[in-house]
Amino acid sequence: MTTFLFIVLGAVALWVLPYYWRLLRRRQLRGRPLNCDQERFLGQSLRIYKSLPLTMQAQLRGEMSLFLQQKEFVGCDGLEVSEYMRIAVAAHACLLLLGRDTRCYPDLYTVLLYPDTYVAREIHRQNYVETTRHSVREGESHYRGPVVISWRDLEQDLAHPELGHNVALHEFAHKLDEEDGYYDGRPLFESSGEGRDWAEVFGAEFRHLRQQRDSEGSQNTGPRVLDLYGAESPAEFFAVATEAFFVIPAALSSHHSALYRELRNFYRIDPAVLYDTNSPAQPKIEK
Q: 52-97, pLDDT tens digit by residue?
């Protein structure tokens, strides 16, 4: 009986001790302050930062400290990754984590930065037929793998927020989406009581966007709140909606109030209220 008890206690210790070690390690890494240059780059690259409450600013810096020390940044096609690039990406990735207890993208180890749009190889299989094609991309998120971002496209998104795009927010929204094991447009909620209306609201909005896409075909009639790319799948819809929520929140709140409410509840933040009156003008929205 004593031997059996020692075996059980040993097994429990083998499971519990690594868990608490990782928990303590994350706490230590979050506690390391950003240096002066990093804080300056944060203010320059994340438009909403100075409008955040001080508690949220502190949480954001802590999550960024953890992110920067845990994730490797790799420059591709000759790009030399600067500290400003690292901060800009980390700031937008960690903005999505505020107000919630997270492990800061536990399955992400590498961020790949390309200098510009890049060509990716796609393989499609249907029954016994396999086809290959190449597509030009601004970014992508690999399931349980790296995030890939075109730096030039992110730069343009930061320079023109009125267009409602942000490739970093888009790809890291995919990372949140995958945490429950599926790319399905429904992220992992902290409790079973959350997200009760998510499926109904997102389903209706997604179907409406698909109807818009199908009626317009390949014609893009102008700026809109939700990019038609969101009609590709529920996963892409969630990523596109996340971009609009953080980049053009007033427009999203005005034209898609139920969708805005669901995103506000999930992200624990209300960017339409936080942005001050000096924010760039909202786009002219096509109804």
A: 999 999 999 999 999 999 999 999 999 999 999 999 999 999 999 9
Handedness of CA 160, 165, 171, 177 (dihedral sign): positive
Count the residues in the chain: 287
Interval 170-190 mean pLDDT: 95
Percent of the chain scored above 70 by pLDDT?
A: 78
Q: Which residue's structure tokens are 């007033």?
A: 250
For residue 190, being part of any structural domain is answered with yes
Question: What gap in Å lies between CA 54 and CA 66, rounded to an integer?
Answer: 19
Q: Report the C-alpha dihedral over residues 251, 149, 70, 29, rounded to 10 degrees.
A: -30
Determine the straight-line distance between the first and last CA of the chain, rounded to whole angstroms. 73
How many distinct structural domains can be found in the chain?
Answer: 1
Distance CA 271, CA 136 (A): 31
Look up the pTM and report it.
Answer: 0.85
In whole angstroms, what is the distance from residue 242 CA to residue 132 CA? 30
Residue 122, domain extent: 23-274
